[in-house]
Amino acid sequence: MDSQLEKAYEAVLRRNPGEAEFHQAVREIFESLGPVLKKNPQYVEAAVLSRICEPERQIIFRVPWVDDEDKVRINRGFRVEYSSVLGPYKGGLRFHPSVYLGTIKFLGFEQIFKNALTGMPIGGAKGGSDFDPHNATEGEVMRFCQSFMTELYRHLGEHTDVPAGDIGVGGREIGFLFGQYKRITNRHESGVLTGKGLTWGGSLVRTEATGYGTVFFVQRMLATSGKSLDGLRVTVSGSGNVAIYAIEKAQDLGATVIACSDSSGYVIDDKGIDVALLKQIKEVERARICEYAARRDSATFHSDGSIWDVPVDIALPCATQNELNGEAAAALIRNGVVAVAEGANMPCTPEAVHSFQNAGVIFAPGKASNAGGVATSALEMQQNAARDSWDFDATQTKLQQIMADIHDRCIETADAYGHPGDYVMGANIAGFTKVADAVIAMGVV
C-alpha cells in the first residue's frame, strides 16, 4: 500500500483495537486502491478513506428475554449503520454465539461496496446478536426476536434502515421480527424488512438468491473463456441457505456437486448431492450433515480432514468467514481447481486469495459473487413500494442480469485500472469509487 493508504489503515487499527475481521476487510479494500488515489487525488483531499471507515452510527443494546424454564437470559444486540450515501442502510442480521462488534463492522463494511456493485439505491449496514437460535426452542426464538426488535425498531424504516436475514436468521426469525415491528409501530410497513414470507410481502427468489447469484456469477466467469458448468465437479462448503441453493442451481446448469458440510464435518456423494434430501435434513429437521450420509448409500461422512481436500473443478465456500486458508487453497490448486467464488462473506483468508491468484485460478470475491441476496432484497423493496408482486421467472431473470452486470463491471474496472482479469481489484475499485463520489457530492456530513 502507498503512504496515504498505510496512514489511513494505521488509524483504523488504532481506533478499532481487537477487531481482527474488520481490520482484514479494510486492508483487503485498501490494497486495491493505490491506482485509484493516483487517478483521483480529490479522494485524499476530502479524507474519503477515513470517512468511509468510520460508521455513521453504531448501536449496541441489551436483549433480555425469558427461556422456557422461566430464567432471565441476556444477550447483546448490534446494528452498525455504516453508509447511507447511496440509499437507506441495507444489510442482514446475524444470530450466532461468535458475533461481536468486530464481526458486525467487518460485515457492514463489506456490505457498503457489495451494495454499490449491485447498482441498486441501497447503503450498507449489518446487525445481529450473540444469541444462538440452534440451541433454542421455537418459543424462545420468538421471545428473543420480540425483545431484540423492541429496541431496534426505533432505528429502522423503509427509508432509513432495512435489515434482512443472515446466518441464524431465516424466514422464521424474520417473521417474528416483523410481527413485533408491526405491533409496536401500528404500521404494516412491508419495506422495513426483507426476506419476508411470500404471503405477506416477500419476494419470490429471495430465499434462493445468494446461492443462485453466486452460481450465475461463476457461469459468467467461465463464459469469458468459452467454458460452462456442464460436466464440472463442484464442492460447496456449508449446508445452510446459501449452500443449498448454490448446489441446486449448479446442478440445474449441468454441474455435479459432490460435497457439502456443516460444523460437524462434510459429506462426499460422487453421484451428486440430493438436494431434496439435504433440504429435508437441514431446513425441516435442522439435523447434522451426518444424517445425509446415513440415508444415502452413495454418500460418506467425514468428521476429520477438510472438505477442500476433495478434488473438484469449482470450489464455492458458502459457510462463514476465513473458512478456507492457505493450506486448503494449496490442496485445491494441487487437485486442479479451475475457479473459486465466495458465496459467504470473506470466507477465504488473504493467503488463500493470493495463492489462487498466483496459480492462475479464477477467483471471485464475495462482494461481487454473493451480491445476489442483497440485490434481490432490493427487488423485494421495489415490489413492496409498488404494492406489487413478480413471478419467479421474472425475478430470477432480473437477478441473473444483475449478476451479469456486476461481473462485467468488475472486468471493465479492472481493465481500466491496469489489472485485466483481476476480479478482486475490479470489485473493490468499482464499489469504492461509486461510494466515494457520492460522499464528496454530499459535502462534509
TrEMBL record:
Annotated GO CC locations: cytosol
Record: residues binding substrate: 90, 111, 114, 165, 377
Domain of life: Bacteria
Active-site residue numbers: 126
Cross-referenced Gene3D superfamilies: Glutamate Dehydrogenase, chain A, domain 3 (1.10.285.10), Leucine Dehydrogenase, chain A, domain 1 (3.40.50.10860), NAD(P)-binding Rossmann-like Domain (3.40.50.720)
UniProt site (Important for catalysis): 166
Subunit structure of this chain's protein: Homohexamer.
Protein known as: Glutamate dehydrogenase
Organism: Cutibacterium porci
